[in-house]
Amino acid sequence: MNSEQLSQRLKTVGSYVSSGARLADIGSDHAYLPCYLAKKQHIDFAIAGEVVKGPFQSAERQVRSEGLTDVIEVRMGDGLDVVRAEDGITDITIAGMGGPLIAKILERGKIKADLATRLILQPNVHALAIREWAVTNDWKLVAEEILEENQKLYEVLVLEKGAMELNSADLLLGPILRQARSEVFVKKWERELAEWERILQKLPDDDRQEVKDKRWELKTKIQLVKEALS
Question: CA nearest 145: which of 13, 52, 5, 46?
Fold first, then answer.
């Protein structure tokens, strides 16, 4: 993968970035996404943020080699610490991390997140954590997409400011994804369902509270998914 040939996962994330955006790409790695969007003249400005020195240096080299230093600034910092009020950021992308980590980054940088008008988030797992954060912090889902690439399944969540209410099924499965019920969506949740049922069967048959709690959690999720797939 490079800035000319993005993965389908990152292309999907990029497709939701607003035209003419001032973008903060958090955990940018090689800065492939902002470079790709800048070369297409889809964004006016971008920050490529990295907390680890190696990826930070890789991003710097990539931006220099593409001749995009006038459009993209590579900054080293933890999460949204790289964003400043004067940057005028409109869109924030965070891709390729677990849902709980993305939610943690947003919570820790809540003041910075609120400067933007759109969040485009691609959790590798546990998107539920992001939906829970969004409900609590008055961000609403305006789009959701699920895709398969190299035998892996990815969800993309797009948030804009506004209140929303989600029930348990919506939090787990995604309200828009659940409504669309695509082949990839069905494949993902059939896979999860089989795994949960396997774990449930292997739980010890005793009355310890932690076992009872785990059994209840699994049965609840299994029921929600079965209803969505029926």
Answer: 13
3-state secondary structure of 119: strand
CA distances from 78 to 49, 72, 124, 126 (A): 8, 18, 20, 21
Instruction: Report which DSSP code applies to 17.
Output: S
Dihedrals phi, psi of 46, to nearest 5 degrees: -150, 150
Please check the confidence at residue 78 and state whether its pLDDT lies above 80.
Answer: yes
Q: Are 172 and 226 in contact (CB under 8 A)?
A: no
Domain extents in the chain: 8-165, 186-229
pLDDT tens-digit profile of 8-29?
999 999 999 999 999 999 999 8
Domain 8-165: homologous superfamily in CATH: Vaccinia Virus protein VP39 (3.40.50.150)
Contact, 35 vs 66, CB < 8 A?
A: yes
Nearest to 10 by CA among 91, 112, 121: 121
Spell 12-43 as b/e; 16+ CB within 10 A means b.
bbbebbeeebbbbbbbbbbbbbbbbbbeeebb
> What percent of the chain clears pLDDT 70, i.e. is strictly above it?
99
